[in-house]
Amino acid sequence: xxxxxxxxxxxxYDPAVGDPGSGIPAGTPFENIPDxxxxxxxxxxxxxxxxxx
Length: 53
Known about the structure:
The protein is mostly beta strands. The chain has no helices and three strands. Belongs to the rubredoxin family. Pfam families: Rubredoxin.
């Protein structure tokens, strides 16, 4: 499971951590996050994230 970076604000989504504040539990792959999820920092959609190594 790779990490994804928001291209707007730089927030890193780490599947090992998830996004508990948005109801995304640890261990959730980015691909399995609901399509209506938004960046917890700047509010943009999943389309604004890129896979990082």
